[in-house]
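Bench notes, bay 3.
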Amino acid sequence: MSLLARIQALAAEHHAEWVGIRRHLHAHPELSFEEHHTMAYVSATLKAWGVEHQTHVSGTGIVAHVHGQQPDSRTVALRADMDALPITEANEVDYASTNPGVMHACGHDVHTTSLLGALRILQLTSDGWTGTVRCIFQPGEERIPGGAKGMVAAGVLTNPEPVGIFGQHVFPDLPAGHVGVRGGAYMASADEIHLIVKGKGGHAALPHKCRDAVLAASNVVVAAQQLVARLCPPGQPSVLSFGFMEALGATNVLPNEVRLKGTFRAMDETWRTQAHEALEALIDATCKAHGCEADLDIRKGYPAVNNHVGMANAFKAVACEYLGAELVHDLDIRMTGEDFSYFANEIPGCFYRLGTASPEPENDLGTHGLHTPRFDVDEEALKVGTGLMAYAAAIAAW
């Protein structure tokens, strides 16, 4: 039996085990950098399988190794993130979150399960492939500075340096059984904007005696988005959005200050830097024009994700062999962010998407968006999530 057939058979044979792992993780979500139970559970699973590993890497991270034939011939890395989001789950399922206000609404339970499953499959087929696979279970993807940055600083890409690293992410835009990938620029940098507009509050009927922070903040929102739209170089996708505005005044009360929070996304580092400088100048000037003061903090987040073209092409070829070309899709650029970029900035990286929606049109399982209280997946996706990751690590070459 070929290695491909063996891996496909194992991914299907152990599917119930993958589902059990995923449901345990889903029921016990933990926030970024607080993944203590998750780390212990992953470690216990690896111990039961007899897999060498190290815990408490950069806090709650884990690094494990599985060896094939000629283990020193090359090292390939696989990565999964483990943290959840501060969202209250609305799904009525027996594996729903047991931690109030915390939910795996971004599929990191699927990512961790897929990496565990891929590791197990590689272990069970170690006579059929060469080299070593380093499995990186990463904390804190959802919160800057990002757990990947700490893992890189802890040396997970050294001794020896892997020839490349694969990561995957759930994708409700595709049905279970499908995957997608894009070579080159794929995901945006992600920066946070935290702004306090400080004015002088008072009676809303007497604005001439106040310094209206609400009006100043409103002008900032409009002017800042106009600035990004007008200054962004042609062909450079960019997004500025404000999702939080807090004034705490009343119908007849102007508050002393207004708080704003937003996100700035870009695909180009030069434009990213220029935009930061332009936003700082504009926000300061806009607030001063209204007699207010700007307390601005632009928190630089993850760099853009650029997939190594050769590695992405190699993954696509492997995926076509594993699934069939009709189930492998070319993806568009996304303005969402991912701290996988820290890995891909050090060594060749390929970040691909795993379809998780039900293929049945009348079934909405897995179709709810990421970061929503109803997010869930069609667990048939775990067969591909585990098996394809294992096969790519075993044979992909670029």
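Next record in the batch:
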Amino acid sequence: MKLFTFGSKDIGIDLGTANILVTLKGKGIVLKEPSVVAIDRKTGAIMATGNEAKDMLGRTPEQIKAVRPLKDGVIADFTATQLMLKNIIQKVGKRYNVGRPRVVVGVPSGITEVEERAVEESVIQAGAKEVYLIEEPMAAAIGASLDVGEPSGNIIVDIGGGTTEVAVISLGGVVVSHSLRVAGDELDQDIVSYIKHELNLAIGETTAEQIKKRIGCAMPLMTETPMEIRGRDLADGLPRNMKITSTQIEEAIKESVNKIVEIVKLTLEKTPPELASDIMEKGIVLAGGGALIQNLDKLLSIETGMPVYIAEEPLDCVVRGTGKTLEDLERLKTVLINSRKRK
């Protein structure tokens, strides 16, 4: 019994730009929150994290600042990231009676050594016993149930909040990968500026995200879908309601979507021929929130001439991958960036 309680103290974290997800060995995903922290400017103490803090974005009084500590998949605000990780590990620790856990964290593939160390330090200071880092596309591939250990090629496209990660994986390693700082957040920005310039209406990021989720598309939908939105009229500064259509949103995000398509094609061009033929056969797997943009799979399939599949529960692939890695740490040691043991 003692062994089991020790084993259940392992935590997997997807440290995303938009969301932070935590999985606990034997329990599955136990926490899913926006990567936002509200901090008291005077004391530096945390007021709130996650949903509570996200509701404060753009609405805080002077003494409180609500920040997204990760930008484009990397740590932009080290102190806030540390506080957030500490808060989250403690939250999970209290709720599930976790002592000093072993932690596997999913990080972007373009991460520098300095940033790697920053993540490790944060997690260690939050009370972890050992920290392992795994590249997000690798974690996403494991989470999407691709057999990463096989000597055949798989390609994963993980479109998160801050980055789009494309990786060709074989024999437990990343053979070719590209990281693009165009992803969900960029699409939200595209929608904000399109509505500002074309419709003379100011909307916030939260509204833009809702629009993207509801009517965002990479190619025209079978039937054009309208949506009622509310914003501030830039002419008179008063609130105004307006209808917007899926065709307009397709136009708004077109440029960024094309960048994502191009990075996938570039990765395929750089893939060794033996692996390319495996990929032709198996197709491309889409993970991350961006996988849910309507018709993106169709567009990618047309542009690459390959079948494209959306992973099951694409938002949870990375965190599920960190969890599966923990369950099989010995076999999957090779996929970790830092197999260094911490005492």
